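Practice problem: predict the structure.
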Amino acid sequence: MERKLKLGYAMCGSFCTLERSIRVLTQLAAKGYDLYPIMSPITYSTDTRFGRAEDFRWAVEDACRRKIMTTVVETEPIGPKSYLDALVVAPCTGNTLAKLANAITDNGVTMACKAQLRGGKPLILAPATNDALSGSAKNIGLLMNTKNIYFVPMAQDSPEKKPASMIADFDRIEEAVLAALEGRQLQPMWLQNG
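Answer:
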């Protein structure tokens, strides 16, 4: 029998994309991935016009059959125990991109990323940020050139109203993970507007 792929699945506070991300997470669970859920503290605890935090938490824990990790203490063992084959951050906000680009480890998601990279294993980022083509562009560029970091292909989500905004194609997360496990960046990385 083939071993289940152990996949960390972290979520940050792009609240408008959480429902999409949870749909992908549920599909991965149905395919037999062994999922380890992680949420930033803001995502874990904040109710917004896009939904209640409690409902998001329930959906994630139901799909993964595990409690969500949120703290540095909970995610730090990912490094020394090296138990994840890959780690996805979906959505990955501009705030998290900036922290990763500048080696800031101040919550469970950023610690999970640091721990994953410590073991030389793939980290896959699915950006969802209103400033991908402005303030976050330099961080995306830096991370694109960092060993073991890969991106889910992305596109501008509303070029007329939000010309600097980009969102990853969440439907390609699994494909991006499988490519990263082979040491490949899924191409094309920049997609036509949806």
